[in-house]
Design brief:
Length: 360
């Protein structure tokens, strides 16, 4: 939780999820560290205090070990007080799940990414959870194979079936717009993308422009790289955008969405690009390959391969009229996927917790 002028704030999607549980009738508490919001950090836009959500916030300071000892001491007290604990993974407080087992208190896990999901202790925790929700059927199947109770959540995105664009045209043009919308950090492949752009420019390709929408720890470094490589005519660092209508506009006005991530769960931006009919070039890391199929609903690239990425971008632009069929298949993919489950993440969790507590 970040200290802002208006109070304690968290990520917008997480805040909407917690508020959704509260609206369903639960008494919800948000437990985490609190710290001053970093300069130019704009992702924490949901004010948990104004939403009247109970808060236990542990001060984070330079003495990291002491902060964690205090957090776990307080966390155990919160486990005892509350009926159910729901832990996002990866998370600094995963071991509270082990303590929950010792206290015989039910807990759930939300797996957002692939990091260390196969390791022994996390696997044991997932197996013994009352419920595990994941961002993809691939992760869900993995937890079920371990012997756990797992389900896939409906994507936590701001758009729905009603937003799907069916009538986009995919015609050759003089200038092509490429969109990167994600945190500006190395694991998202941003440096690889910049170097791919540099390769294309050095090869004489000039009929494209890249918009980088987002903010993150490497923002200033990426800005410096763009300047050093003299790529300002081809790349624009837009910064973070939270307005859903403006984000929609970026997708619709872009000819390609590119996701060069090194590791992921399943990034929400791919759901969004499919909803708006923006042709996708993506790595196949994490559980992306469960939904995305090369040359069917996307064009695949290898992670950490700027030269290969440049070649695929050049190929798509050179044969752009052929991308229409792939983009339309992506529209069908997201339409079918969203139609399978009408419950929100909040509704899924609330229902499962009610069923668990009623049985006990």
């Amino acid at each position: 939780m970040f200290e802002n002028e208006g109070g304690l704030c968290i990520n917008r999607n997480t805040g909407k999820f917690i508020a959704g549980i509260k609206e369903l009738g639960a008494d919800v508490e948000n437990f985490h560290f609190r710290e001053k919001i970093p300069r130019n950090y704009f992702m924490a836009t949901f004010n948990v205090q104004k939403a009247c959500i109970r808060i236990t916030a542990i001060r984070k300071n330079k003495y990291k070990l002491l902060a964690y000892l205090r957090a776990y001491t307080v966390g155990i007290k919160r486990l005892i007080y509350n009926d159910f604990t729901y832990i996002f993974y990866p998370n600094n407080f995963l071991f509270l799940a082990l303590i929950s087992m010792l206290l015989r208190k039910p807990y759930g896990i939300y797996i957002r990414g692939e990091m260390d999901v196969d390791r022994r202790i996390p696997s044991y925790i997932f197996k013994n959870a009352s419920i595990v929700f994941t961002v993809s059927p691939k992760f869900t199947a993995k937890i079920i194979k371990l012997g756990g109770n797992s389900h896939t959540i409906r994507p936590m995105i701001d758009y729905s079936l009603l937003d799907i664009v069916h009538n986009r045209k995919y015609q050759k043009k003089e200038q092509y717009e490429i969109l990167f919308l994600a945190r500006v950090e190395y694991p998202k492949g941003i440096a690889d993308l910049i170097h791919a752009v540099d390769i294309l420019v050095k090869q004489g390709m000039q009929n494209f422009h890249l918009s980088i929408v987002g903010y993150g720890p490497e923002f200033e470094i990426v800005q410096k790289i763009i300047q050093e490589l003299d790529l300002n005519p081809y790349v624009k660092l837009v910064g973070l955008i939270t307005d859903t209508e403006l984000i929609r506009k970026y997708y619709i006005e872009s000819d390609i969405y590119i996701c060069p991530s090194h590791h992921e769960g399943f990034p929400r931006v791919l759901y969004e690009a499919m909803i708006f009919g923006t042709p996708i070039i993506t790595t196949m890391v994490g559980s992306i390959s469960y939904l995305m199929k090369d040359s069917y609903n996307c064009i695949s690239i290898e992670a950490k391969d700027p030269a290969g990425m440049a070649q695929k971008i050049q190929s798509v632009i050179s044969n752009y009229s052929a991308i229409g069929e792939i983009a339309k298949n992506a529209t069908l993919t997201i339409e079918n996927y969203l139609s399978q489950n009408n419950e929100t993440h909040s509704e899924q969790l609330f229902r499962n917790v009610q069923e668990k507590l009623n049985r006990t």
